[in-house]
Design goal:
By secondary structure, the protein is mainly β. It is built from 8 helices and 35 strands.
């Protein structure tokens, strides 16, 4: 959940997006592209790059910086190590019927809201890269189709929209606007986790009961950190009937604990308690990284392994300093047998490894991507049969604009104040690797593409190119089917392939006529072109309103940070995900955040909307 610290500038800086230029001069031709962590170093308050340097000094400075930083990027630590975890312990969580929170629970929720603010460290904002491509994505969506109860003519069927927090009797007031919901389905059992709660169903969503993630850190108490907060992810591995639940703990000054729960769904029998097997993972016990804490997790599976990714930040620094990323790999067979488990991890200290996002999809290889700059992805892979990950490969993409907030609702108040460019979606299907992330608006102008609102950038890579050993892969325009609209901002996309090969998509959208709402759909290759179709899943009724020490901040604009769509194992063409929407409409009300469960499917013959121009 935490993000890189914001740096302020007291003097002009010539860094603009990934390109460097003098404010008083034309941009270099061709533009010089630098990693945005280079930008951060050059443009920090201590290392500003004044625009009045002479041309010779500017050129010398640029060349020196490029050489130094390229050497740094290629010399950073990227190590793989293996250990064996002992047989897991066990832990039980109470299953509670719908009930209002106690005074103790309310106090805990408020404390976690405060901790969430501690973790909310703004990312440095970059200006737009120059020049941009003049093309427009074929995936422009001027309107998102409304949601009738009957089968959609465009091939999307939202079977049910289930208000899980209502059915579970959750108090909406204590669900965060940064809800980050995640769902897992195992037959009739559904587990949904969010900030700061969880719900459980044993009848395929007809009813829900409450689970208390706080108690999972109290009994037994986690040795490292200050108890539960905040990120959670859940996952179901069908071949082994294995439900997996990851809960992130708070930094206690010496790091934090991630509690990994797992159990076969058939072992989670209905009753007053659910018993899980458990591993406690901390930076110190995994990699010997003392004084660091795990954050912003992602989770997927390959044919043989559970894969988990993290950022690691320093506990001693305020604001927190990024130290490394880590990719953990655990044997699924060994987890399912509840015995000792091999854990292999890959660490990467390069700042270009910030916030890796893993590919979803049943495969023998996992891929992940990060941003080197606003025109280049860095992609790595790790196959089940390999002891370590492959080296980074550069993928050249159409430059995007670093997000910097914006996007107001019908009331003129913001909802994307937290938005950044971390990759939020990854998938693998039919020989293609895909990633998606947020871009800010890109304005009109000669030779400049027009994307008037925050939108979703998409890059689809042929897997054969990633195995060719090419030092740089250049994507065609047809491989970058961005998802954008002239009417709505899009954010926090998630994607996963179905068994039939379509790519299911979920995202949030909002604009002057819609409060932050959730849409679902699919991405499909039609006659060699990637097309997306979206439809409304659930509509929100307000922009984010955040409790603070003085009452309610109705302009906080905090939404996000991720969604987690999954392929439905019970059908070849379906998916499910959980989303959050604000339900309060009265400014005097406490904020009310509802978590909804959305199962949907595509149809084999679907009339995909035709592209629209400017």
């Amino acid at each position: 959940m935490a993000m890189l610290p914001e740096e302020t500038h007291t003097k002009p800086c010539i860094a603009v997006g990934p390109s460097l230029r003098d404010f008083d001069a034309a941009p270099p031709d061709p533009p010089i592209t630098l990693p945005y962590f280079v930008y951060r170093q050059l443009c920090s308050e201590q290392n500003f790059f004044p625009s009045k340097l002479g041309p010779t000094m500017r050129f010398s400075f640029l060349v020196t910086s490029i050489i130094v930083l390229l050497c740094t990027a290629n010399s950073v630590s990227a190590q793989t190590q293996e250990t064996t975890l002992p047989a897991p312990g066990t832990i039980s969580v109470d299953v509670r019927p719908p009930q209002k929170p106690s005074a103790e629970q309310i106090t805990r929720y408020k404390e976690k809201a405060r901790l969430l603010e501690e973790h909310d460290v703004p990312v440095q904002t970059l200006a737009a890269a120059i020049p941009f491509s003049s093309r427009l994505s074929n995936n422009r969506v001027a309107t998102i189709k409304p949601r009738p109860q009957s089968l959609f003519s465009d091939g999307i069927n939202v079977k049910d929209q289930i208000d899980t927090t209502k059915l579970a009797g959750m108090d909406y007031h204590y669900v965060s606007t940064v809800a980050e919901p995640s769902a897992a389905v195992a037959g009739d059992k559904i587990l949904i986790a969010f900030n700061w709660g969880a719900v459980w169903s044993t009848d395929r969503g007809k009813s829900f009961q409450q689970l208390d993630p706080f108690s999972l850190f109290d009994q037994p108490h986690a040795v490292v950190g200050r108890g539960f907060c905040c990120d959670q992810l859940v996952f179901y591995d069908k071949p082994r009937d294995l439900l997996i639940w990851l809960l992130q703990g708070s930094d206690g000054g010496d790091g934090n604990t991630v509690r990994l729960l797992f159990a076969k769904s058939t072992d989670l029998t209905p009753g007053k308690q659910l018993q899980w097997h458990v591993y406690d993972l901390s930076p110190a016990t995994i990699g010997g990284w003392t004084g660091e804490w795990f954050d912003f997790p992602d989770m997927t599976t390959t044919n043989q392994n559970l894969i988990i990714s993290f950022n690691l930040f320093s506990s001693a620094d305020d604001p927190p300093e990024f130290r490394r990323s880590a990719i953990l790999r655990l044997s699924l067979d060994e987890l399912a047998n509840y015995g000792p488990t091999r854990l292999t991890f890959q660490q990467d200290e390069c700042k270009c490894a910030f916030s890796p996002r893993l590919t979803q999809g049943n495969a023998s290889t996992v891929y992940w991507a990060t941003h080197e700059d606003t025109a280049t992805l860095l992609v790595r892979s790790w196959s089940d049969g390999e002891t370590s990950a492959k080296a980074r490969q550069r993928v050249k993409i159409e430059p995007y604009q670093y997000p910097s907030g914006g996007a107001e609702g019908p009331n003129g108040k913001p909802w994307l104040a937290r938005l950044d460019d971390r990759i939020t979606a990854g998938w693998i299907a039919d020989g293609h690797i895909g990633f998606a992330w947020n871009s800010g608006p890109i304005g009109d102008g000669s030779g400049v593409a027009r994307y008037p609102l925050p939108h979703i950038r998409v890059a689809i890579i042929d897997a054969s190119n990633l195995t060719s050993g090419s030092p740089m892969i250049h994507l065609s325009e047809s491989s970058q089917p961005h998802i954008w609209s002239s009417a709505y901002a899009f954010a926090y996309a998630t994607a996963a392939p179905s068994q039939s090969g379509d790519i299911g998509v979920g995202l949030y959208f909002g604009g002057r006529t819609k409060y932050p709402s959730a849409a679902v759909g699919f991405l499909r290759s039609v006659a060699g072109e990637w097309k997306v179709t979206l439809t409304v899943a659930v509509e929100g009724q307000n922009t984010p309103r955040c409790p603070d020490s003085s009452g309610i901040d109705n302009r906080c604009g905090k939404w996000g940070d991720y969604l987690a769509i999954k392929s439905d194992p019970s059908t070849s063409n379906g998916w499910y995900l959980a989303v959050a929407t604000e339900r309060d409409t009265d400014p005097n009300q406490q904020p009310q955040i509802a978590v909804s469960f959305i199962p949907f499917r595509s149809t084999p013959q679907s009339a995909i909307a035709s592209p629209q121009g400017r």
